[in-house]
Amino acid sequence: MARTIAITNQAGGVGKTTLVRDIGYELASRDKRVLLVDLDPQASLTIFLGLDPWQQQKTIYHSLRDENVPLPVVEVFNLKLVPANLKLAEIEMELATILLREFRLREILSPLLDQYDFILIDCPPSLGLIVINALCAADEVLIPIQCEFKSWMGTDGLFDTITKVAKQANKRLKILGVIPTMLDSRT
């Protein structure tokens, strides 16, 4: 059964995607079966792994929109990736009328849980429905925080959201840790 970890912070540019990619590579180098899920409409993870987001026939968007569309899993190096593109930005509006919309990602990942040791979810810089879906699908949350005062000040909303999801929608959700990023060793 896969250990599912959401890497999230509502701030942009704190190293979420880099962390997902690097942890994924490290786990794969240790012979772990790893699935990376690009849940950011900017598709940085998809791009970082050398793919053109617009050349992908199907992306996470298609599966979130219609649960009958299987997750498109692409092999990249020794990793598996569910790619994204900018179309994903439309999903929050499209899910607005769907019952239990916050569990859509959990539903579509469910058939894959026995195929992987780790599922790492790269979240967008927000606290919207896409991130709520990631938190409802995850066992754990890893929070990269840039090593500066302003970055730490913005985490209250994130911790509140994680606490609410853990109490109301996903009792198994735990904070795995906070990772300081972009440390200036001269200070």
Provide a brief overview of the structure.
This protein has eight helices and seven strands; from the N terminus they run βαβααββααβαβααβ. It is of the alpha/beta class and 187 residues long. The chain has a single domain, classed as Rossmann fold.
SSE diagram, text form:
Layout: E1 3-7, H1 16-29, E2 34-38, H2 44-48, H3 60-65, E3 74-76, E4 79-82, H4 91-95, H5 104-109, E5 118-122, H6 129-137, E6 140-146, H7 149-153, H8 156-168, E7 174-181
Parallel strand pairs: 1-5, 1-6, 2-4, 2-5, 6-7
Antiparallel strand pairs: 3-4
Q: What is the overall pLDDT average?
A: 91
Let me know the largest β-sheet. Answer: 7 strands, mixed
For the secondary structure, the number of strands is: 7
> CATH superfamily, please?
P-loop containing nucleotide triphosphate hydrolases
Spans of at least 5 consecutive residues whose pLDDT stays below 50 are none
Q: What's the CATH topology label?
A: Rossmann fold
Order of helices and strands: EHEHHEEHHEHEHHE
Give the CATH level 1 class.
Alpha Beta
Structural class: alpha/beta
Rg over C-alpha atoms, rounded to the nearest angstrom? 16 Å
Overall structural domain count: 1
Distance between the termini: 42 Å
The neighbouring-strand order within the major sheet is: 3-4-2-5-1-6-7
Q: Provide a count of the helices.
A: 8
Strand content: 15-25%
The helix content is 25-40%
CATH architecture: 3-Layer(aba) Sandwich
Overall outline? globular
